[in-house]
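Example for tutorial group B:
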């Protein structure tokens, strides 16, 4: 049995050496209802990943204050907004509602798809109307911070989603990974532009868009499969 399953078992059943007590009426005490244990574990996963993403956004904010880069401000606002997608999922775990989890999962999938549309639009617009990119060092630094933070959040959510059998949490993990790829694209773009390859920025953007579309489809299938099994 894996360490992750051991963790959930401890959450549900308590320490292995603790026996449930029985009162005079024959009622058992000392055991945690599995749905309550799952709710607590889910809230912890969502809360931890949210803390990581907020710390990432704050670190990017510090870089923005130092440079005043408008492009960095846009990425910063984007990361703050995406961090908030964890809220409906956290609420679903608190409510211990599978239906609310699935609804949150659909919300996350829609958010990923919107990210793909925005990335595609911006990339095509940059191909048609090339624009100079300033603050390359700041953008590279902010992109690195964004990639690390989002990848950590993705790992936390994906592992938690598999452990708790939560397709919505898995989808949100893919969402964080998408944002990490976008941030990594920013780093590659900054490096390419620094070497004089201006068109590399929109080309990298289109490549990232294709990856986002693929992740959107995978996340959609994950949520749909869970919904089919629920019925």
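The residue assignment follows.
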């Amino acid at each position: 049995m894996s360490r992750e399953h051991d963790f959930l078992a401890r959450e549900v059943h308590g320490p292995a050496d603790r026996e449930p007590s029985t009162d005079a009426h024959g009622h058992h005490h000392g055991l945690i209802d599995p749905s309550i244990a799952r709710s607590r574990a889910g809230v912890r996963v969502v809360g931890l990943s949210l803390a990581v993403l907020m710390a990432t956004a704050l670190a990017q904010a510090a870089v923005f204050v130092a440079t005043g880069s408008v492009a960095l401000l846009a990425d910063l606002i984007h990361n703050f907004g995406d961090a908030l997608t964890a809220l409906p999922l956290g609420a679903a775990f608190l409510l211990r509602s599978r239906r609310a989890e699935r609804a949150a999962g659909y919300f996350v999938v829609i958010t990923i798809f919107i990210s793909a549309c925005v990335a595609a639009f911006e990339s095509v617009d940059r191909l048609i109307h090339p624009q100079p990119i300033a603050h390359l060092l700041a953008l590279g630094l902010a992109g690195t911070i964004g990639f690390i933070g989002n990848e950590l959040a993705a790992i936390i959510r994906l592992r938690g989603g598999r452990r708790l059998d939560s397709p919505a949490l898995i989808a949100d993990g893919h969402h964080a990974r998408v944002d990490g790829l976008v941030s990594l694209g920013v780093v590659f773009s900054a490096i390419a532009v620094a070497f004089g390859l201006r068109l590399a920025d929109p080309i990298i953007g289109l490549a990232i868009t294709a990856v986002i579309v693929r992740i959107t489809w995978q996340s959609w299938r994950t949520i749909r499969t869970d919904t089919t099994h629920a019925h």
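The beta strands are 21-22, 28-29. Compare this with the pattern of hydrophobic and polar residues in the output above.
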